[in-house]
Predict the structure.
Amino acid sequence: MFGTAGIRGSAETRVTPELALAVGRAVAAEVRATEAAATPEIVLARDGRVTGPAIAAAMEAGLASGGLRVLRAGRLPTPALAYASQDRYGVMLTASHNPPTDNGIKLFRDGSEFDREAERAVEARVADDEPPAAWDAWTESERVDTLDDYLDAVRTYAEGFGADLDGIRIAVDCGNGMSAPATPTVLRELGADVVTLNGNVDGHFPGRGSKPTPETLHDLRAFIADANEGVDEPGRPADGDAEGFAFGIGHDGDSDRIVIVDADGDVVHEDTVLALLAERYTRESDAADPVVVTTPNASGRIDERVREAGGRVERVRLGALHEGIATVRAAADPGADTRVVFAAEPWKHIHVGFGEWIDGVASAAVISRLTAESSLDDLRDPITERPYRKVSVDCPDEAKAGAMERLTTTLPDAFGDAAVDTDHGVRLEFPDASWTLVRPSGTEPYVRVYAESDAVDDLVANVETVVADAVAAATDEK
Protein backbone atom coordinates (compact mmCIF):
# COMPACT_ATOMS: atom_id res chain seq x y z
CA MET A 1 0.00 0.00 0.00
CA PHE A 2 2.76 2.46 0.93
CA GLY A 3 5.38 3.49 -1.63
CA THR A 4 8.47 5.62 -1.19
CA ALA A 5 6.39 8.64 -0.17
CA GLY A 6 3.21 7.42 1.46
CA ILE A 7 0.20 6.22 -0.52
CA ARG A 8 -0.41 7.79 -3.94
CA GLY A 9 -2.60 7.16 -6.93
CA SER A 10 -5.79 8.01 -8.76
CA ALA A 11 -8.43 9.63 -6.58
CA GLU A 12 -11.07 7.71 -8.53
CA THR A 13 -9.62 4.21 -8.26
CA ARG A 14 -6.91 4.10 -5.56
CA VAL A 15 -6.77 6.95 -3.06
CA THR A 16 -10.54 7.11 -2.71
CA PRO A 17 -12.69 8.34 0.19
CA GLU A 18 -13.28 4.67 1.01
CA LEU A 19 -9.54 4.08 1.37
CA ALA A 20 -9.14 7.26 3.42
CA LEU A 21 -11.84 6.10 5.84
CA ALA A 22 -10.15 2.71 6.23
CA VAL A 23 -6.67 4.19 6.67
CA GLY A 24 -8.01 6.72 9.18
CA ARG A 25 -9.50 4.00 11.35
CA ALA A 26 -6.34 1.91 11.03
CA VAL A 27 -4.11 4.84 12.01
CA ALA A 28 -6.35 5.61 14.98
CA ALA A 29 -6.25 2.03 16.21
CA GLU A 30 -2.47 1.82 15.83
CA VAL A 31 -1.92 5.14 17.63
CA ARG A 32 -4.23 4.21 20.49
CA ALA A 33 -2.47 0.87 20.84
CA THR A 34 0.93 2.53 21.23
CA GLU A 35 0.16 5.79 23.08
CA ALA A 36 -0.54 6.23 26.77
CA ALA A 37 -2.71 9.33 26.27
CA ALA A 38 -6.43 8.64 26.53
CA THR A 39 -7.21 10.62 23.38
CA PRO A 40 -4.08 11.26 21.29
CA GLU A 41 -4.06 14.29 18.97
CA ILE A 42 -3.63 14.17 15.22
CA VAL A 43 -3.42 17.12 12.82
CA LEU A 44 -5.12 16.67 9.44
CA ALA A 45 -4.27 18.84 6.41
CA ARG A 46 -4.53 18.70 2.63
CA ASP A 47 -3.06 20.39 -0.40
CA GLY A 48 -5.06 22.31 -3.00
CA ARG A 49 -6.30 19.38 -5.09
CA VAL A 50 -9.94 19.34 -6.15
CA THR A 51 -10.42 15.89 -4.60
CA GLY A 52 -8.96 16.98 -1.26
CA PRO A 53 -12.14 18.06 0.59
CA ALA A 54 -13.97 14.77 0.04
CA ILE A 55 -10.94 12.65 0.94
CA ALA A 56 -10.29 14.85 4.00
CA ALA A 57 -13.88 14.37 5.16
CA ALA A 58 -13.52 10.60 4.90
CA MET A 59 -10.13 10.63 6.67
CA GLU A 60 -11.56 12.81 9.44
CA ALA A 61 -14.42 10.35 9.91
CA GLY A 62 -12.01 7.43 10.15
CA LEU A 63 -9.73 9.14 12.65
CA ALA A 64 -12.56 10.47 14.82
CA SER A 65 -14.49 7.18 14.83
CA GLY A 66 -11.22 5.51 15.77
CA GLY A 67 -10.94 7.61 18.90
CA LEU A 68 -8.36 10.28 18.03
CA ARG A 69 -8.74 14.00 18.67
CA VAL A 70 -8.67 15.47 15.16
CA LEU A 71 -7.29 18.97 14.58
CA ARG A 72 -8.34 20.19 11.11
CA ALA A 73 -5.64 22.48 9.70
CA GLY A 74 -7.19 22.98 6.24
CA ARG A 75 -4.90 23.58 3.26
CA LEU A 76 -1.18 23.57 4.08
CA PRO A 77 2.18 22.87 2.51
CA THR A 78 3.35 19.41 3.56
CA PRO A 79 6.26 20.81 5.62
CA ALA A 80 3.81 23.01 7.54
CA LEU A 81 1.75 19.93 8.44
CA ALA A 82 4.94 18.14 9.50
CA TYR A 83 5.85 21.12 11.70
CA ALA A 84 2.38 21.00 13.26
CA SER A 85 2.73 17.26 13.96
CA GLN A 86 5.53 17.81 16.48
CA ASP A 87 4.66 16.22 19.84
CA ARG A 88 1.64 14.56 18.22
CA TYR A 89 0.60 12.86 14.97
CA GLY A 90 -0.20 14.20 11.51
CA VAL A 91 -1.90 13.18 8.26
CA MET A 92 -1.19 15.04 5.02
CA LEU A 93 -3.43 14.46 2.02
CA THR A 94 -1.28 15.19 -1.02
CA ALA A 95 0.05 13.58 -4.17
CA SER A 96 2.96 16.03 -4.17
CA HIS A 97 4.12 16.48 -7.78
CA ASN A 98 1.69 13.95 -9.31
CA PRO A 99 -0.98 15.12 -11.79
CA PRO A 100 -4.27 16.64 -10.58
CA THR A 101 -6.15 13.37 -11.04
CA ASP A 102 -4.15 11.83 -8.16
CA ASN A 103 -4.16 12.22 -4.41
CA GLY A 104 -2.25 10.66 -1.56
CA ILE A 105 -1.80 10.04 2.15
CA LYS A 106 1.35 10.72 4.19
CA LEU A 107 1.59 9.94 7.90
CA PHE A 108 3.73 11.74 10.48
CA ARG A 109 4.68 11.28 14.09
CA ASP A 110 6.45 14.05 15.99
CA GLY A 111 7.56 15.82 12.81
CA SER A 112 8.92 12.75 11.03
CA GLU A 113 7.33 10.46 8.46
CA PHE A 114 6.16 7.04 9.58
CA ASP A 115 8.90 4.44 9.13
CA ARG A 116 8.34 1.15 7.30
CA GLU A 117 7.42 -0.73 10.48
CA ALA A 118 4.69 1.78 11.34
CA GLU A 119 3.39 1.83 7.77
CA ARG A 120 3.19 -1.96 7.69
CA ALA A 121 1.28 -1.97 10.97
CA VAL A 122 -1.28 0.39 9.41
CA GLU A 123 -1.44 -1.77 6.28
CA ALA A 124 -2.17 -4.85 8.38
CA ARG A 125 -5.03 -3.10 10.17
CA VAL A 126 -6.51 -1.93 6.85
CA ALA A 127 -6.31 -5.50 5.54
CA ASP A 128 -8.10 -6.72 8.68
CA ASP A 129 -10.87 -4.13 8.10
CA GLU A 130 -10.29 -2.36 11.42
CA PRO A 131 -13.68 -1.57 13.03
CA PRO A 132 -14.47 1.76 14.69
CA ALA A 133 -13.83 2.32 18.36
CA ALA A 134 -16.62 2.02 20.90
CA TRP A 135 -19.28 4.68 20.33
CA ASP A 136 -18.37 6.65 23.43
CA ALA A 137 -14.75 6.98 22.29
CA TRP A 138 -15.68 8.85 19.11
CA THR A 139 -14.57 12.49 19.03
CA GLU A 140 -15.59 15.84 17.58
CA SER A 141 -12.91 17.50 15.49
CA GLU A 142 -11.85 21.12 15.82
CA ARG A 143 -10.27 23.71 13.54
CA VAL A 144 -6.70 24.91 14.12
CA ASP A 145 -4.58 27.53 12.33
CA THR A 146 -0.93 26.54 12.13
CA LEU A 147 0.47 28.22 9.00
CA ASP A 148 1.55 31.50 10.60
CA ASP A 149 3.47 29.72 13.36
CA TYR A 150 5.27 27.61 10.77
CA LEU A 151 6.19 30.59 8.59
CA ASP A 152 7.50 32.51 11.61
CA ALA A 153 9.62 29.50 12.56
CA VAL A 154 11.07 29.21 9.04
CA ARG A 155 11.96 32.90 8.96
CA THR A 156 13.62 32.77 12.40
CA TYR A 157 15.61 29.67 11.43
CA ALA A 158 16.79 31.12 8.12
CA GLU A 159 18.05 34.28 9.86
CA GLY A 160 20.85 32.15 11.26
CA PHE A 161 22.37 31.81 7.78
CA GLY A 162 23.93 34.16 5.27
CA ALA A 163 22.97 37.82 5.09
CA ASP A 164 19.90 40.05 4.99
CA LEU A 165 18.08 40.01 1.68
CA ASP A 166 17.71 43.82 1.60
CA GLY A 167 15.68 44.14 -1.56
CA ILE A 168 17.23 41.28 -3.54
CA ARG A 169 14.80 40.41 -6.33
CA ILE A 170 13.65 36.78 -6.56
CA ALA A 171 11.13 35.13 -8.89
CA VAL A 172 9.09 32.29 -7.40
CA ASP A 173 7.00 29.91 -9.51
CA CYS A 174 4.50 28.40 -7.08
CA GLY A 175 2.99 26.12 -9.73
CA ASN A 176 -0.53 26.78 -8.37
CA GLY A 177 0.52 24.72 -5.36
CA MET A 178 0.77 25.18 -1.63
CA SER A 179 3.97 27.22 -1.75
CA ALA A 180 1.81 30.19 -2.81
CA PRO A 181 0.90 31.22 0.75
CA ALA A 182 4.30 30.22 2.11
CA THR A 183 7.56 30.88 0.23
CA PRO A 184 6.77 34.39 -1.09
CA THR A 185 5.57 35.43 2.38
CA VAL A 186 8.73 34.21 4.13
CA LEU A 187 11.07 35.76 1.56
CA ARG A 188 9.29 39.12 1.74
CA GLU A 189 9.49 39.07 5.53
CA LEU A 190 13.22 38.43 5.16
CA GLY A 191 13.49 41.57 3.00
CA ALA A 192 13.35 40.25 -0.56
CA ASP A 193 11.46 41.80 -3.45
CA VAL A 194 9.46 38.80 -4.69
CA VAL A 195 7.59 38.37 -7.97
CA THR A 196 5.43 35.25 -8.26
CA LEU A 197 4.32 33.14 -11.19
CA ASN A 198 1.31 30.82 -10.84
CA GLY A 199 0.88 32.28 -7.38
CA ASN A 200 -2.72 31.21 -6.74
CA VAL A 201 -3.66 27.79 -5.33
CA ASP A 202 -5.59 25.84 -7.96
CA GLY A 203 -5.96 22.06 -7.82
CA HIS A 204 -6.22 21.82 -11.59
CA PHE A 205 -2.61 23.12 -11.88
CA PRO A 206 -3.49 25.28 -14.89
CA GLY A 207 -0.18 27.16 -15.01
CA ARG A 208 2.16 24.20 -15.47
CA GLY A 209 2.66 20.59 -14.44
CA SER A 210 2.98 20.16 -10.70
CA LYS A 211 6.40 18.52 -10.95
CA PRO A 212 9.04 21.25 -11.35
CA THR A 213 11.39 20.22 -14.17
CA PRO A 214 13.43 22.16 -16.72
CA GLU A 215 10.52 21.67 -19.13
CA THR A 216 7.63 22.66 -16.84
CA LEU A 217 9.60 25.65 -15.54
CA HIS A 218 9.99 27.01 -19.08
CA ASP A 219 8.02 30.18 -18.32
CA LEU A 220 10.00 30.94 -15.16
CA ARG A 221 13.28 30.38 -16.95
CA ALA A 222 12.31 32.58 -19.90
CA PHE A 223 10.93 35.24 -17.55
CA ILE A 224 14.23 35.47 -15.67
CA ALA A 225 16.40 35.36 -18.79
CA ASP A 226 14.39 38.13 -20.48
CA ALA A 227 14.34 40.31 -17.36
CA ASN A 228 18.10 39.97 -16.92
CA GLU A 229 19.11 40.76 -20.48
CA GLY A 230 21.59 43.64 -20.40
CA VAL A 231 21.53 43.91 -16.58
CA ASP A 232 24.98 43.97 -14.97
CA GLU A 233 24.06 42.72 -11.48
CA PRO A 234 20.65 41.09 -11.83
CA GLY A 235 18.36 41.27 -8.85
CA ARG A 236 20.75 43.16 -6.60
CA PRO A 237 19.96 46.73 -5.55
CA ALA A 238 22.61 49.30 -6.37
CA ASP A 239 21.47 52.94 -6.35
CA GLY A 240 17.74 52.36 -6.27
CA ASP A 241 15.52 49.36 -6.95
CA ALA A 242 17.00 46.13 -8.27
CA GLU A 243 16.63 45.25 -11.94
CA GLY A 244 16.08 41.71 -13.14
CA PHE A 245 16.27 38.74 -10.77
CA ALA A 246 19.14 37.29 -8.75
CA PHE A 247 17.67 33.81 -9.24
CA GLY A 248 14.39 31.90 -9.33
CA ILE A 249 12.67 29.21 -7.29
CA GLY A 250 10.23 26.54 -8.44
CA HIS A 251 8.14 24.32 -6.15
CA ASP A 252 5.89 21.30 -6.58
CA GLY A 253 2.27 20.97 -5.50
CA ASP A 254 2.88 20.55 -1.77
CA SER A 255 6.16 22.50 -1.35
CA ASP A 256 8.49 19.74 -0.28
CA ARG A 257 10.51 19.97 -3.53
CA ILE A 258 12.57 22.94 -4.67
CA VAL A 259 14.31 23.79 -7.94
CA ILE A 260 16.74 26.70 -8.31
CA VAL A 261 17.03 28.67 -11.57
CA ASP A 262 20.10 30.86 -12.05
CA ALA A 263 20.26 34.39 -13.44
CA ASP A 264 20.69 33.05 -16.99
CA GLY A 265 17.44 31.09 -16.75
CA ASP A 266 19.18 27.73 -16.41
CA VAL A 267 18.18 25.13 -13.86
CA VAL A 268 20.94 24.52 -11.31
CA HIS A 269 21.57 20.79 -11.06
CA GLU A 270 19.74 19.36 -8.09
CA ASP A 271 22.88 17.66 -6.76
CA THR A 272 24.79 20.94 -6.89
CA VAL A 273 22.13 22.56 -4.70
CA LEU A 274 22.35 19.57 -2.37
CA ALA A 275 26.15 19.75 -2.29
CA LEU A 276 26.34 23.45 -1.45
CA LEU A 277 23.86 23.04 1.43
CA ALA A 278 25.57 19.88 2.68
CA GLU A 279 28.95 21.63 2.72
CA ARG A 280 27.57 24.64 4.55
CA TYR A 281 25.88 22.56 7.25
CA THR A 282 29.00 20.44 7.69
CA ARG A 283 31.33 23.45 7.99
CA GLU A 284 29.08 25.20 10.50
CA SER A 285 28.63 22.14 12.71
CA ASP A 286 30.67 21.84 15.90
CA ALA A 287 30.19 18.06 15.96
CA ALA A 288 33.31 15.90 15.98
CA ASP A 289 31.66 13.57 13.47
CA PRO A 290 29.21 15.51 11.25
CA VAL A 291 27.19 13.27 8.92
CA VAL A 292 25.15 14.04 5.79
CA VAL A 293 22.53 11.44 4.85
CA THR A 294 21.64 11.09 1.19
CA THR A 295 20.50 8.47 -1.33
CA PRO A 296 22.37 6.11 -3.69
CA ASN A 297 21.45 8.13 -6.80
CA ALA A 298 22.95 11.34 -5.42
CA SER A 299 26.15 12.71 -6.96
CA GLY A 300 29.71 12.16 -5.84
CA ARG A 301 30.05 15.95 -5.77
CA ILE A 302 28.24 15.78 -2.42
CA ASP A 303 30.84 13.42 -0.97
CA GLU A 304 33.65 15.67 -2.25
CA ARG A 305 32.30 18.83 -0.65
CA VAL A 306 31.33 17.15 2.63
CA ARG A 307 34.77 15.51 2.95
CA GLU A 308 36.41 18.87 2.20
CA ALA A 309 34.37 20.39 5.04
CA GLY A 310 35.39 17.65 7.49
CA GLY A 311 32.33 15.39 7.43
CA ARG A 312 31.18 12.12 5.94
CA VAL A 313 28.25 10.87 3.86
CA GLU A 314 25.93 7.94 4.59
CA ARG A 315 23.42 6.66 2.04
CA VAL A 316 19.95 5.21 2.52
CA ARG A 317 17.29 3.92 0.13
CA LEU A 318 15.20 6.41 -1.82
CA GLY A 319 12.31 7.86 0.15
CA ALA A 320 13.78 6.89 3.53
CA LEU A 321 15.86 9.86 4.68
CA HIS A 322 14.11 9.77 8.06
CA GLU A 323 15.13 6.14 8.47
CA GLY A 324 18.70 7.01 7.50
CA ILE A 325 18.85 9.69 10.18
CA ALA A 326 17.65 7.18 12.78
CA THR A 327 20.13 4.54 11.60
CA VAL A 328 23.14 6.88 11.88
CA ARG A 329 22.12 7.86 15.39
CA ALA A 330 21.57 4.25 16.45
CA ALA A 331 24.96 3.16 15.07
CA ALA A 332 26.95 6.00 16.64
CA ASP A 333 29.48 5.04 19.28
CA PRO A 334 28.68 6.47 22.72
CA GLY A 335 30.64 9.64 23.28
CA ALA A 336 31.65 9.96 19.61
CA ASP A 337 29.66 13.18 19.11
CA THR A 338 28.19 11.90 15.84
CA ARG A 339 25.45 14.17 14.50
CA VAL A 340 23.38 14.20 11.33
CA VAL A 341 23.68 17.81 10.18
CA PHE A 342 21.72 17.55 6.92
CA ALA A 343 19.76 14.93 5.00
CA ALA A 344 18.66 15.19 1.40
CA GLU A 345 17.94 13.49 -1.87
CA PRO A 346 17.76 15.31 -5.20
CA TRP A 347 15.14 18.11 -5.01
CA LYS A 348 14.24 17.34 -1.36
CA HIS A 349 16.04 18.56 1.78
CA ILE A 350 15.73 17.91 5.52
CA HIS A 351 17.14 20.76 7.60
CA VAL A 352 17.80 18.68 10.71
CA GLY A 353 18.42 21.66 12.96
CA PHE A 354 14.95 22.95 12.11
CA GLY A 355 12.97 19.73 11.88
CA GLU A 356 13.13 16.20 10.54
CA TRP A 357 10.85 16.61 7.56
CA ILE A 358 11.46 17.49 3.91
CA ASP A 359 11.00 21.23 3.57
CA GLY A 360 11.19 23.20 0.33
CA VAL A 361 10.09 26.42 2.00
CA ALA A 362 12.95 26.29 4.50
CA SER A 363 15.33 25.50 1.63
CA ALA A 364 14.10 28.57 -0.26
CA ALA A 365 14.71 30.79 2.77
CA VAL A 366 18.15 29.40 3.60
CA ILE A 367 19.39 29.44 0.00
CA SER A 368 18.16 33.00 -0.44
CA ARG A 369 20.08 34.15 2.62
CA LEU A 370 23.22 32.33 1.44
CA THR A 371 23.03 33.99 -1.99
CA ALA A 372 22.68 37.36 -0.31
CA GLU A 373 25.99 36.75 1.43
CA SER A 374 27.70 35.26 -1.63
CA SER A 375 26.31 35.07 -5.14
CA LEU A 376 24.88 31.83 -6.52
CA ASP A 377 27.84 31.62 -8.91
CA ASP A 378 30.29 31.93 -6.02
CA LEU A 379 28.45 29.23 -4.06
CA ARG A 380 28.62 26.88 -7.05
CA ASP A 381 32.24 27.62 -7.92
CA PRO A 382 33.94 25.02 -5.65
CA ILE A 383 31.60 22.24 -6.79
CA THR A 384 32.78 19.95 -9.58
CA GLU A 385 29.83 19.35 -11.93
CA ARG A 386 30.52 16.27 -14.03
CA PRO A 387 28.18 15.09 -16.79
CA TYR A 388 25.30 12.99 -15.44
CA ARG A 389 23.02 10.49 -17.15
CA LYS A 390 20.15 8.21 -16.19
CA VAL A 391 18.95 5.41 -18.48
CA SER A 392 16.47 2.54 -18.16
CA VAL A 393 17.13 -1.03 -19.26
CA ASP A 394 14.04 -3.14 -20.00
CA CYS A 395 13.59 -5.88 -17.41
CA PRO A 396 10.48 -7.94 -16.60
CA ASP A 397 9.44 -7.59 -12.97
CA GLU A 398 9.90 -11.32 -12.37
CA ALA A 399 13.52 -11.13 -13.60
CA LYS A 400 14.61 -8.16 -11.45
CA ALA A 401 15.73 -10.17 -8.41
CA GLY A 402 17.78 -12.59 -10.49
CA ALA A 403 19.35 -9.81 -12.53
CA MET A 404 20.35 -7.82 -9.46
CA GLU A 405 21.80 -10.92 -7.80
CA ARG A 406 24.03 -11.45 -10.83
CA LEU A 407 25.01 -7.80 -10.98
CA THR A 408 26.40 -7.86 -7.44
CA THR A 409 29.17 -10.01 -8.94
CA THR A 410 29.38 -9.14 -12.63
CA LEU A 411 29.51 -5.35 -12.22
CA PRO A 412 32.43 -5.35 -9.75
CA ASP A 413 34.20 -7.92 -11.93
CA ALA A 414 33.84 -5.65 -14.98
CA PHE A 415 35.19 -2.59 -13.13
CA GLY A 416 38.00 -3.88 -10.96
CA ASP A 417 39.23 -0.44 -9.78
CA ALA A 418 35.89 0.58 -8.24
CA ALA A 419 34.79 0.61 -4.62
CA VAL A 420 31.56 -1.39 -4.33
CA ASP A 421 28.44 -0.76 -2.21
CA THR A 422 25.50 -3.18 -2.52
CA ASP A 423 23.21 -1.82 0.20
CA HIS A 424 20.79 -0.16 -2.23
CA GLY A 425 21.39 -1.73 -5.62
CA VAL A 426 24.98 -1.85 -6.87
CA ARG A 427 26.93 1.39 -6.62
CA LEU A 428 30.49 1.66 -7.95
CA GLU A 429 32.76 4.59 -7.06
CA PHE A 430 35.95 5.15 -9.05
CA PRO A 431 39.26 6.78 -8.00
CA ASP A 432 38.50 9.89 -10.11
CA ALA A 433 35.20 10.42 -8.18
CA SER A 434 33.08 9.11 -11.06
CA TRP A 435 30.34 6.68 -10.03
CA THR A 436 27.50 4.55 -11.29
CA LEU A 437 24.45 3.06 -9.61
CA VAL A 438 22.30 0.19 -10.86
CA ARG A 439 19.00 -0.51 -9.12
CA PRO A 440 15.63 -2.02 -10.03
CA SER A 441 12.68 0.30 -10.52
CA GLY A 442 10.05 -0.16 -7.84
CA THR A 443 7.16 0.78 -10.12
CA GLU A 444 8.12 -0.02 -13.73
CA PRO A 445 9.68 -2.97 -15.65
CA TYR A 446 13.16 -1.48 -15.76
CA VAL A 447 16.56 -1.64 -14.19
CA ARG A 448 17.81 1.93 -13.76
CA VAL A 449 21.36 2.97 -14.51
CA TYR A 450 22.69 6.25 -13.07
CA ALA A 451 26.16 7.53 -13.87
CA GLU A 452 28.30 10.61 -13.39
CA SER A 453 31.66 10.93 -15.11
CA ASP A 454 33.69 13.16 -17.39
CA ALA A 455 33.32 10.24 -19.84
CA VAL A 456 29.72 9.51 -18.90
CA ASP A 457 28.64 8.14 -22.30
CA ASP A 458 31.38 5.53 -22.30
CA LEU A 459 30.67 4.59 -18.69
CA VAL A 460 26.94 4.21 -19.33
CA ALA A 461 27.52 2.14 -22.46
CA ASN A 462 29.81 -0.25 -20.59
CA VAL A 463 27.46 -0.56 -17.62
CA GLU A 464 24.43 -1.07 -19.89
CA THR A 465 26.16 -3.99 -21.57
CA VAL A 466 26.74 -5.75 -18.24
CA VAL A 467 23.19 -5.00 -17.10
CA ALA A 468 21.66 -6.27 -20.34
CA ASP A 469 23.58 -9.53 -20.04
CA ALA A 470 22.37 -10.01 -16.47
CA VAL A 471 18.76 -9.26 -17.42
CA ALA A 472 18.91 -11.68 -20.36
CA ALA A 473 20.27 -14.47 -18.17
CA ALA A 474 17.68 -13.85 -15.45
CA THR A 475 14.87 -13.74 -18.02
CA ASP A 476 15.98 -17.02 -19.63
CA GLU A 477 15.82 -18.70 -16.23
CA LYS A 478 12.19 -17.64 -15.88
About this structure: The two ends are 27 Å apart (CA to CA). Residues 270-359+370-380 form a domain with the Alpha-D-Glucose-1,6-Bisphosphate; Chain A, domain 3 fold (CATH 3.40.120.10). The chain has four domains: 7-147, 162-261, 270-359+370-380, 388-477. The CA atoms of residues 95 and 103 lie 4 Å apart.
